[in-house]
## 1
Amino acid sequence: MLSLPSFDNQRLIFHAARQTRRKAEMARLAVHEWLNQHDFELEEWKNKTALQMGIGISELEHKLLAAAQSQVVSSNKDDNPDSETKSCVSS
């Protein structure tokens, strides 16, 4: 049987998680709508940038995705300083 404070903490954690999911879904919809509205401009920018770099559009897209992924990885490492120490200890 759960004590009242324990139940209350679990209820608050569940509520916070639900709110976070709702906010993330609202952000996803807003970004999706913005991308749809500015699709032509984004395509124009990709064409111009790829031409300036002397590479194909698919290669530019690949580089952009790789850069975004490395940013996420480095951001995750910055957010969790213990992860680096744990990986060094476990090696």
## 2
Amino acid sequence: MRAFLAIFTALFPMLVHAEVMDKEPSLFAVLLLGLFGGLLAFLAARLKPWLLLVLLPVVGTFIYLQLTELTDPYVGPAIAAEAGRLYIVISWAAPVLVFAGCSAGFVWRRRNVKVST
């Protein structure tokens, strides 16, 4: 038992040692969220706007959590140092893509509305 505790105690710093980006979503996940979130927001706004009541809070929560960590005075610079500028740019572009997709869907829906006479 004493040997187990000695080994576990010696390895404990290695068990809890993790970089900042080990706890963050990957660049690919953030990029997919922006692209698919924008596409789904476009389709929902174009075809069934009531689906935005479900879609936007889910995507918005993920984006909010992502951006709060990027703007944190301690975590943000560590993310920028470890992941690079591309990660920061894509993280800030994701909400813009979702907003643009939603807006384009509403515009397209408005243009194709048949006027009843």
## 3
Amino acid sequence: MEELMQRLVHAAAMEGAVAQAVLDDGLRLLVYPLDEGQLAVLGWPAGSGHQVHGETLLRRRGADMARYGHWLPALFNDGGWYVVHRLGVDGNPASLDAATLAAAAELLQ
């Protein structure tokens, strides 16, 4: 997933548009370009059939801020749950490693 993340970061920067991929388990990975940096987004679209319990996600994040604190939960208008991480500004890396992406996936379980 780390290599895929790097490809999406590059594609979003080059095209100036959202780059996305659907992982084998159905999770969606997106990279949004911004004026400064990018947003990495991982989550379950509303129609995925996967239920995320927002309260559980928030408790899990709050219980281990060292591991999950960089990921901000987001409930999209369509009912999909995602976590968002800012890239390339404020000391944040320009891409994400496998451990950071795994933490995001854990939050969404």
## 4
Amino acid sequence: MTRAEFDALLASLIERDGALLFRDQAGPSRKGDEDVDLYVFSGHLEALRSEEIDGEIEEHLMDLGYPPAASEEAAWEQVRDFYLERGCVLLRVEADEYVLSEQLAQHLKLL
């Protein structure tokens, strides 16, 4: 996905009551609706590797029960593989990578 396509996807969403909804399907806006930017979106992901947000990859790897990796790249590969082996979906946006649950990917019409 290009950065422009990704930005358009985020702009088409709102977060309401902890869920991501498409603006055109959400009906009238409500108090508490939040625009979705990368930070809001990141709260719905399993893992991410992004230049814009520090995903704390080493800490995430340790939370999964793995020993420290030799490099950040190796840590990301282990984290990414952990989730992909469990049915998650990898979304690449230029150099960034985001791991989503299959359910979220389907909801966002990415599959």
